[in-house]
Amino acid sequence: MSEKYVYKFNEGNAGMKALLGGKGANLAEMVNKGLPVPPGFIITTEVCLKYLEDPKIVDRIWDDVKAAVAGLEKETGKKFNDKDNPLLLSVRSGAPVSMPGMMETILNLGLNDDTLEGLATKSGDRRFALDSYRRFIQMCSSVVDDVDSDKFEHVLTAARKKLGVSFDNEITAEELKNVVAEYKKIYKEATGSEFASDPWVHLRKAIEAVFKSWNIPRAVTYRKINKIADDLGTAVNVQVMAFGNLGDDCGTGVCFTRDPSDGTNELYGEFLINAQGEDVVAGIRTPLKIAKLKEVMPDIYKELYDKTEQLEKSYKEMQDIEFTIEKGKLYILQTRTGKRTAAAAVRIATEMESEGLIDKKTAVGRVSPVQVEQLLHPQVDKNAPKDVVAVGLPASPGAGVGQLIFDATEAEEWTKEGKKVVLARPETCPDDIHGLFAAEAVITSRGGMTSHAAVVARGMGKPAVCGCEEMVIDLAANTLTARGRTFKKGDFVTIDGTSGTILAGEAPLVKATFGDDFKKILVWADEFAKQEVWANADTPEDAARAIEFGAKGIGLCRTEHMFMESGRLPVVQELIVADTLEERKAALDKLKVMQKEDFVGIFKAMKGYPVIIRLLDPPLHEFLPKENSLESEIAELEKKGQGQAKEALYKKKTLDKVRLLHESNPMLGFRGCRLGVVYPEISEMQMYAILEAASELVSKGVKVRPEIMIPLVGTKTEMKFFREMADRIAGDVAKKTGVKLDYLLIGTMIEVPRAALVADELAEYAQFFSFGTNDLTQTAFGYSRDDAEGKFLFNYLEKGFFKENPFSELDRDGVGALMKIAVEKGRGVNKDISIGICGEHGGDPSSVAFCCSIGMNYVSCSPFRIPVARVAAAHAALGVLK
What we know:
Largest sheet: 8 strands, mixed
Distance between the termini: 27 Å
Radius of gyration: 33 Å
Mean pLDDT: 92
Low-confidence stretches: none
Oligomer: single chain
Helix content: 40-55%
Strand order of the largest sheet: 12-22-21-14-15-16-17-13
Strand content: 15-25%
Number of helices: 36
Shape: elongated
């Protein structure tokens, strides 16, 4: 731990985020650049981490805190706890990675009954002083002592109703005095103590509350969702208050240097006259668009515009800026990298590159694989009829369909039951984070484009409609009412966050399309990536889609999927039920014609890119009817009598085969290359079909690059057996067709631990390796995936045994170690051996990064994940993703 625990703003800089947190480092940077920032100091993240182990650390730093407050007194000419000219402070969190709204904030700290009078006198506005005091009591009570904030809101609502006014800033000074008295009563009833009058006590408790808030549920949930490490801690920023609620020449707002919804290069944001910052973010009052500031305070608008331009050019990134106007003077309270939608991220990155602000590498690094995935989210079909319920602000684009739910926890519970939900709230708060994450979309009746719901939804890629004031949400009745219609909990609605429209029922959705900016990002990504992205594709249609998405090959073509088609399944069953080699070959001859047609179509669609075809992998019983179904059918046929004897006999023969093929553990049983060893004619048929299809196309001038993959190999003898088979058949086909293929590779899937451990032996015969990480994960852990995910894996994740599901994100320590061994051993025998991955992990960004780190040539994934993998591969090569 460093010896320095407390930093004045002018002692830090933007490069100190790990120690000072993002907010503190950026405040320091702005002070150094001469921007109008209220003075303050930062207590480091190291103190937070120490505090969570031993709260007594606050005793050790308290003299430093007092000295820092004394420095603020000297700088401002005000005094902390002074009844004539009181110094008031804000106490805010600030983690190294932005976690907007997830931790605690306390404003107006320093007020008590005595300093209230000083503030009233000094400001000349008793109403303002009382308003600040009631805010402080409410915020301090709920944050520090966990008093239910709704109790205070009920008092405020009653005050507005009593006076017949709509907004808090219309409550008179006389009534605010009553509100303050009621607030104190609420505090005493809830805690059994009087509300403390010593500001130093409040300051210490506020600092500790911010440290504690690192581990409150919503912060923990946010970190889990966004994969932020738990050991970073938060800094505490203590800053002199700037007041936006002193009158009509005051205000507060949030703005972005570019539109966070679509990336338009214009100042974007909202503000309120005569308000404090939480009024904008909380969505209690619907704010004004930032363009309106140009009309009501033109000089302030120009200054704000200039400062935002300065900040964007300095950080070379779109900025999210909080500001306050106090008596005609502008203060910048915070700047940070702005959260944005995926579409905005792409546009901002490409436009900043064209403006010369950033280079191509930086532009690619600004678009995350998660955002690429969000870009693939569906939209409402423009041609479908629309039953409009209400229209609000288009806070976050995209479309979502689900059942209405009005409670965040219930939204999470319904999602766990497999339901799709739309969360509807008057406004959201940070404690709703788990419900927002679970929901398909979110709608609010209050709040603007910079409200909590809007910001969080954009960050998560969730569609959102906010500030829909024509809609009334009754949380007690669990209803949504708009335009004379009422919708209940469980009713289906569709949210179009792109247009700000709420629709009744389940509107049809269409897949998103790629714009020119996104295509540009993908092209740049391919320039920087060190590994190619291939596709898992089983049909010509899949292959064509893969090419459209930018695949450079097919890493897995599963031949068993071709067998499952209705017209072919009876032929496959003939093959399995056959008693003699002649019967099997008769069925195989029929299948060969079908398989050859399949391969011709796929080779054509891939336009000369490599195609890895895996020979038959699943156990044979998967192609046969279930035992109980056959028993029922046989019983039915026997009832019908003699005319059904032939069919009944065949069904009985099939039933005998089903029983014969029954296995205790099929995943580890008679499947993969073992089928080809016992029934070599099956593998031979597939090889002939592949090579004859390739030869036919080559004879017509079509370029093809076939690769044959043997599944589930675990021994050198198995690999030798199939390599010799493939070489023999290739020679035979060349002799018959007169076509010698320039390109043909024979390789294996590495999907059992032994294969990884003897990869050097396999490489004597295999010309490529492809990691089948679905099975390799099962065999490395000794898990059956279906059983693990259905019975206990959720508990392992919940209890922290795993950070991620190992079937979704590659287990680097175990499965990854086996892969690394295989790569090193394989390349030790054949330095040019091609190595890739074709399990589901091929489309997971973290897994792609690992594959890059061990020098693999390609990753293969489903066609729709290709753009995600392309950007992930670039991020891995650039060091953005590790």
